[in-house]
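Exercise: predict the structure of this protein bound to guanosine-5'-triphosphate.
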Amino acid sequence: MVTRLQSSGRAALTEDKQVTSFSDLMPKPDIKPELLLKLSSRLQTTLELELLLDIFFNEIKHAVLVDSMCYSNSNQNLLNSYGKVGIHSCTYRLTTHKDYMGELTFSRSTRFREHELANIEGLISTLVYPLRNAVHYTEALAAAFRDPLTGAGNRIALDKTLSREVELAKRHSQPLSVLMLDIDHFKNVNDTYGHAMGDEVLKQVVKSITACIRQTDMCFRYGGEEFLIMLASADSEGAHRIAERIRYSIEAAVFTHKKGSLSITSSIGSATLFASDTMRSICERADSALYKAKNSGRNQVITDHEEILLATN
Ligand SMILES: Nc1nc2c(ncn2[C@@H]2O[C@H](COP(=O)(O)OP(=O)(O)OP(=O)(O)O)[C@@H](O)[C@H]2O)c(=O)[nH]1
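Solution:
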């Protein structure tokens, strides 16, 4: 279903008007059947959302003059823009009988006329179902890389992302740091308060970590109660500071349970990339720093200083 939400620079339109079944008063779309057929078959060639929208944007320009197109889907946190935004725009909400599929906005420097809007609406009708498949595919891909309990990246995502980031950091001589974090005495939480409480703690730990890092950083679930945090562009000092912030934030969270309230602590090992590192070696150095933090009494951050010694020698 295609619903026109707004269109600027022309007579006001009824909000949320459904335009799949055109009334007699509205202009009918005037699009060559060959164009619709071509568009429809091209849209069926891909499940990649970006590519699908790119095809649609390029094809729609054969039928209507548009300078820009923006697709947004707040449920899935998706935003894709094409072209240069103009001052006149029209926006459509796309839905199927079950799903909200997001909004499409077109713009250009001159007003949209009624027959052009009818054409746009006719063309969007061919997009709705291929778009639904692409959005579901994007969702499935994202789920395949996420830990279902905490929403942190899983090991597959970690391997993919960290190996790429290590290569990029080396190529551009940018710092990159890795934190390995383990919850202290987590077994006691499960044993005393139950597994459900343990799960709540794990979810809260990821929230605390995510609140302390930048959008370009990432948190992965490395094992049961162990997390790896990848800090892009962070040197050793910066990584230590962020690790302390995370450690504090985890310690500050209080959990309530009928058996009483509880708080937890974490131990963190930090390592910063140096030239001879591989993804595996930087993780091993962060892990051995974590091991030292555990053995030195827990609830602390230990930075692996090997790279600093090497750099100064
Ligand atoms: N609730 C819950 N517990 C988990 C999950 N994954 C692993 N665990 C538990 O995490 C606990 C880890 O225990 P240990 O490896 O002994 O570590 P610890 O008790 O945190 O002790 P230290 O790390 O030495 O401070 C085990 O009891 C696991 O069952 C999970 O997804 N949910």
